[in-house]
């Protein structure tokens, strides 16, 4: 295989695609009889591939990965060399090798993803993300910042006279406790989905109108999807409206809102009423 693309956005797309192909191959090889073993193998195969390719093609960059404990411990007492390097680096790849391990290990499910994002100290945006890709291997597509999708089309419901029904992506297993009340308040319909990447990708493509999460996440859960969403022109923020920030000492990033810009004021106002 030849060299990957040099431009960061295209490289992120290439890397997410490579990892996705490996995960599809693993699924076909192992089957679904032992979900626990498949989950563990998926995390390892994708992580090892991504780390190997980053070391080869971006050796001067730091990495923050869900599967790399050394890069995560920057806020803990046992700070180590790997953790410190990402906090002082100018460029950091933030990756989730397999977002949605539960869905990955369930036959026929396609709502799992591979996240590859690049944070830069010199980025012009508050979140610092300058490139990203969300691979959706079982859906045979990759959404990336090198060729971001067009701003999502208005839904059929939105075009109907007399108001709009907001389609709100929600966790299959851990939706925020206030989400049902908020949905009733704004006239939203909850659409259960799997991984965070799949839910934000659904906002990017117009399959749903918004995604709200407040149950606890980490930077790798949202970095790549947020990079693509904001490149598309969507709104992305904390649920209090403040900016999302990445490559922080503590990588916990517990809540976020990603939605069409025209819906942001309405949803943020509803969040003030219901998330406290």
Highlighted features:
D-Maltodextrin-Binding Protein, domain 2; 2 domains; alpha/beta; 5-stranded mixed β-sheet; 276 residues; Fructose-1,6-Bisphosphatase, Chain A, domain 1
Protein architecture, described:
GO terms for molecular function: 3'(2'),5'-bisphosphate nucleotidase activity; metal ion binding. Pfam families: Inositol_P (PF00459). Its cofactor is Mg(2+). It comes from Micromonospora costi. Helix 7 links the parallel strand 6 and strand 7. The chain starts with 7 loop residues before the first helix and ends with a helix. The relative contact order is 0.14. The chain folds into two domains: 8-144, Fructose-1,6-Bisphosphatase, subunit A, domain 1 (Fructose-1,6-Bisphosphatase, Chain A, domain 1), CATH 3.30.540.10; 156-275, 3-Layer(aba) Sandwich (D-Maltodextrin-Binding Protein, domain 2). The strands form two sheets. It has a five-stranded mixed β-sheet, with helices on both faces. The chain has a five-stranded mixed β-sheet with strand order 7-6-8-10-9, with helices on both faces. The chain has ten helices and ten strands. The chain has helices at residues 8-30, 35-57, 69-72, 81-88, 101-104, 156-159, 179-186, 196-205, 219-232, 264-274; strands at residues 62-65, 91-99, 113-120, 129-136, 141-144, 166-171, 188-193, 210-213, 235-237, 256-259. The protein is 39% helix and 20% strand.
